[in-house]
Amino acid sequence: MIRVSKLRKVYRSHGMENVVLDDVSFQLRPGQKLAVIGKNGAGKSTLIRLLGKVEFPTSGVVDHRMSVSWPLGFGGAFQGSLTGIDNMRFIARIYHIDYARMRAFVEEFSELGQFLYQPVKTYSSGMRARLAFALSLTIEFECYLIDEVIMVGDQRFHERCNEHLFNRRADRALIIASHDASFIRDVCDSGIVLSNGKALYFESVREAMDFYQEQERRPNGLAAASRPTDSYLAKSDEESLSTPEQKTGTDPSSSGFSVIDAYISNGAGPEHLVEALYRHVLGRSPDPEGFAHFVRRLKIKEFPDELPYVVRDFVNCEEARMRMKVQG
What is the CATH topology of the domain spanning 2-216? Predict the structure, then answer.
């Protein structure tokens, strides 16, 4: 497991501060495939480097409870004046890997040939990424960090990367920062959308991509929609809640979203509104984890500001869409 709590990263230059990440929290489970989504400059690569501990956060915690690779698209770990072979020997010593086995695999997989005997500072970014990717596959990490490296090289190299990383190591966790929507949808199962330093977590990668693309089409982009959240919210309190019908007098058989206005006009709090969404939109009792998640979201910011996004998430739910079709 990787646990990220209240992560903040600020770069300072010429007396100015650039807040790249602010109060980012989530956790990664073993075997989970997480996409990091956002426009250029949103902080995707910064988050990957912080997770790989290539950089240190300004504040917050990155807690590794599994072995994590270096960012595969990052060549900063190489010593530029040393050759690829020399860097390989150094990494083998650090990770206690048999050097001969590592060298044989890297020479065959990277296809860098005689360039392995040249200083790494003479490599192109693609060549450095090939070397980093090949070296990472010689070490059995439990989680791999990928920063666009899958786009390096020709089609044959892509296919070999897919085979080794996504087929042979299908049980490993992945955190991938990429602009390739189709690739992300094929490989990942969950997603984080970064905007204005905040992170919005989705259990479904398709919902994450749909949300990101929808907000990109808006005049103000993601700026109006960014808000903090996390994926390891506390479980719902055990205390029992009186039913929404008792609080508002609404008809429990009402369909669609007509019930929402009644709840708001009667001054219902976040707990009762979330329960109403489950019962009248999803048509079922709330599960404790989901209930706590949406209640927490409503409490993060002012109630009216957050409400449209909570309702939208219910509408985007496949179960909700099917129910709305039946009601319509």
Answer: Rossmann fold (3.40.50)
Q: Which residues contact 316 (CB under 8 A, 6 or more apart)?
A: 207, 210, 211
- Digit-coded pLDDT (tens) for 157-206: 778 877 888 888 889 999 999 877 888 888 899 999 998 888 999 999 99
- Please check whether residue 48 is in contact with residue 177, taking contact to mean a CB–CB distance below 8 angstroms: yes
Nearest to 106 by CA among 134, 129, 130: 134
Closest-CA residue to 271 (of 301, 242, 312): 242
The whole-model pTM stands at 0.62
Cα gap 176→151, rounded to integer Å: 12
DSSP-derived secondary structure for 267-298: T--HHHHHHHHIIIII-SPPPHHHHHHHHHHH
DSSP state at residue 225: T
pLDDT per position as a tens digit, 235-289: 333 333 333 333 333 333 333 344 455 455 555 667 777 777 766 666 667 767 6
CB-based contact 34:190 (threshold 8 Å): yes
Task: Indicate the domain borders of the chain.
Answer: 2-216, 244-327
